[in-house]
Amino acid sequence: MPEHPVAEGQLNQSFTSRSPRGNPRDGTGGHSAGMAVRFQCFLRDSRWGWRLLGSNNRPLARSPGGLDDLPSALHDAAQVAALAVVGDIELQAEGHAWRWRLVDHGVVRAVAAIAYARRPDCWRAAERFREQAARAAVMGYPLVTPHLSA
Question: Which of 31, 113, 128, 137 is the most buried (most CB within 10 A)?
């Protein structure tokens, strides 16, 4: 077998793991073979936040602002998971794009991770958030990011 199959025009199997057919190496299929839906906490600019990641590892939602510490971020993510089904969803136009946000008693608790070009796509994403957040685990450890020096 050649040492560098991509250079010789062959398929690099490491890029097929996201395929709807699954990974040909281990026989798994589709998104069910991906990671579990989860809330993941992180530190950015000395403030804590969380994001909801889908089973395909793509962000579905994020915290609207920074929190003081990791326990606060973990608690907030758990509260949002509980509110996802019963909280109010508001759609907002931002220029030529749409975003959804989860609101509880006038307080924004979660926002869309990305903007959507069409209002119906934004609404469908909000419904996916409701379904996924309600069954998502809150990871008890933060995302570790390397500190790179210039």
Answer: 113
Chunked into runs of 10 residues, the chain (150 residues) has average pLDDT values of 38 32 40 75 93 95 95 96 95 95 97 97 97 94 64
Written as six digits, the tokens of 48 are 């804590």
C-alpha to C-alpha distance for 67 and 127, rounded to whole angstroms: 26
Q: What residues make up the domain containing 43? A: 33-138
**How many structural domains compose the chain?**
1
d(CA 88, CA 131): 14
Q: In whole angstroms, what is the distance from residue 7 CA to residue 4 CA?
A: 6
Query: Which runs of E-coded beta strand occur in 63-148?
Result: 88-94, 97-104, 107-112, 137-138
Beta bridge partners of 116: 98
- Asked if residue 17 belongs to a domain, the reply is no
